[in-house]
Amino acid sequence: MSNYRPISIINSIVKVYEKIIFNQLSEYLTLNNILSPFQSGFRKHFSTTSALLKFTNDIFSGFDNNMLTGALFIDLTKAFDMVDHYLLLDKLPSIGLDRSSLLWFKSYLHHRQQCVLFNGSYSNFLSVDKGVPQGSALGPLLFSIFINDLPTKCIYSNIQLYADDTVIYSSKSNIVDIQHSIQHDFNSVQLWLQSNKLLLNKSKSYFMLFQKRLRPVAASEIHLTYLDMSLISVAEKFKYLGLWLDSSLSFSAHIQSIVHKISYRLKLLYLSINCFSLSVRKKIISQLIIPSLDYGDIIYQNTTLTNLRPLNVIYNSLCRFILRCPFRTHHCLMFQQLSWLPLSSRRQFHWLLFIFKCINLSYPDYLKQYLTPFQSSYNLRHADQIFFAVPRVKKQIGKYSFNYKAPSDWNNLPLSIRSLTSFFAFKNACLVHLQHSCNCFRFNLISFLPFIYYFISLP
Q: How far apart are alpha carbons 83 and 91 in whole angstroms?
């Protein structure tokens, strides 16, 4: 029962009115840069992907400089339901709302009641004196305003938030400095949580140590504590914003999770394969399973080919399920029949689209700061072309960071694609650019004639 969340059931007129208020308040917060730049939740052009890219970029940059990165993942107990209405109303003047707006929000939050409907019977109504209304457009935005000053408590460490999902992290050359910086800021965060009547969930808060050294340091050597001096649990891997992270950022645990989940679903689908036509099978796979492969693919794309191979195998299995073709059918024939990109090209396609959006849209400044135009003191032949400055790295792993890979991959695109300003034109040009012409056939077409005949015979 402790995990049930009350949902505000309101009529359509009120929903429209809430949406109008939400749009006005959101636009006001954006134009005046009021929300913390470290908050990625429920904001236009911000996402879990952008937050993960920033987080992993800082870790890879630390690896390149032979640094360790300690990260403390903080979980809050029923964060949205614990927001005190009076504390929230006290914070609204700090963002510049006038008196009439404050009175409106006071009326909006106060005197709320809720009940339970079960088998046609209603329970007694109870007053709700805390929590932002869930199921409403304004709820998440009000929560973001409520915790907007939390990042200011981190002085010696970095912080990233996605709604209430919080990570405090620090990259240093030794574990002593990591422990000092994170412990100091975490103590300040705990005091802030207490004063704002939010509760830490100790059972779901973990510390991780990210490192890429020949002689790894044991994470257990770092002893972080809560205010009551109890130790914070240490994890070897952690699922942050839907992505499994391990200590070396190999993403092997995440890939294994994807393969296991898709294999199980595909096994169930095979039980009723005769019930679906080709178009239905393609729609099922595209809408229910492919999103599992697509989520976070631009983040784990830099892992080794050995780690990525199981994804290619399961991707080919999905193609065989749709087309019902023999097991030994060549993957290039299946991709051509489905008009799908190979999985590696699909990841690159998503990556290029994301970079384009970072350049041309109001994407987070914590990523756009790494895309600075290249300035040369010489009068070069290609001075009028669009190039971004690529930082120097010391190791191969430094090339996995966003601040290196994004400008580097953009610069490697043909000028005809880089110069496009329309998103749809850029998208179509990238599709053509990434069309895979496989040389697996080795001009041995005779051995593939049965498969070619099979595809020709498909409806």
A: 12
